[in-house]
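Anyone opening a protein record will find just a pair of labelled lines. A complete record is shown below as an example:
=====
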Amino acid sequence: MNKRRYDSETARKEIMKQATFLFSQKGYNQTSVGDISKASGYSKGHIYYHFQNKEKLFVLLAQKTMQEWYEKWVAKETTYTTATEKLYSMANHVLYNYQTPLLKAGQELAANPKSSPESIKQLYDLAIVPMSAYRSILQKGADEGEFKNGNIDEWTVLLGTWLGGLCQLTNTQELKTLEPLFNQAITIFLGSIIKGGNENESRINW
């Protein structure tokens, strides 16, 4: 029984590893279950047994990617003390972790009329993770008197929308050249919520 569990977990990991590579290289539409089977060395039956279908496998991989994004942020967040510092660091984190290997494949799945509404919803729900992280920083700033009293939910939506819009520039520009723009976005945002003092004094070096 123990050996069977070990083999099952090994199969899952190898299938996920090879699927990630194929989705990243070929895209969602051009990657078939047969391709994943050949690359992983496991039969289509194994893939269907563990993941049901290609769609569910991809959603699981996307969720795993977002979890890794969050874990990286949590590890980084502890090195900063103030909410202002955290916001600048978050902007940098978003900039350098937006273009994931699975991003374009996910966009293909979402745009495919054959995709199930459930899978599309699960992909869109992934945005809850970064939005919750933004909200946590803003709430900390408000609770500790660093930021003004305000509507945290509205601030969260505005910050997420602004950073998300800026991320579209990563499709055409080098990430390093975008650092000043992301930094300036936070400076301008802070100008409307910071409580007293000069937000420019709180900038950090990434």
